[in-house]
Amino acid sequence: MSKLAKLHLPGNIYNWIGAFLSNWDQICRYSGFVSKSTTCNQGFVQGSGLGPTLFVVLTLDLNTVSNYNVIVKFADDSTLLVPENSDVGVEIEFNNVQEWAGDNTMILNLIKTKELIFHNPKARTCHPNLPVLLNIERVTSAKLLGIYTQSNFSCDIHFNHIMTVSSQRLHILKVLKRQGLSLEMLHNVFYAIIVSRITYAISSWYSFLAKAQIAQINSLFKHAFKYGYVKFIITVEELLASYVDQLFYKATYDNHCLRHLLPVAKSNKYGLRDIGHGLLIDQVTSELHKRTFINRILFSNCY
Hints:
The chain has 303 residues and is of the alpha+beta class. The protein is built from eleven helices and ten strands.
């Protein structure tokens, strides 16, 4: 409530939220037995409309110690990014997060917390001389918001995962077809359980695939058409183009979370006709830079 007070909300809204959070009763039901009612004055009501917004308010003051470091927050998942040239190490930053959690009567799930050190993918060996965080497992890959991220910037693990899931879901379509589901409905189910899985965040990881991996995805689409699960053959390149265009269109809005990653507009002193998005494009300095999704959407929308 003290954090809500800093937002200068109207008094009636502030009091309404306070009443909503205070003195609500909770019971447990199990195997036909119901516990006694107990008054609870901590936490949010799961599934409530205010819950996500209030959690954002609660974590507003969770910041990094150094301006060089970045903390990305999404619901109850927080990702701390510390570059090698930072003036504050990851140990101090992590202790700061733990102190914040303690001050806000919250507990970090140390079992789910992982440390991932990114390195040049061309390096033959990687032996970082960094101390291991206490009680935190250091890994070479981690799943973040549905995407498997690897320390060498590869997407092989994520690719293998979505292909395994997609192949398993083809069996569902096979069963549905045997039971007489129409082609129209099979097509809808295919898009719902397979295409949606493949296209999830495709703009971020597609550029890191090898040609053989791209061909494998297209082969799955051809297989689906051959056995009558879809009405026409689709390709991953067609799906990508559509999603990249949508992403770029949304990112150009000032209130979009990716807007700050886009470059500034060109300063045209000669009165020439604008071509494409009219944004400055940074010089590509490495293969990794070339493959980033921001770089891809800029070049794909030049004309």
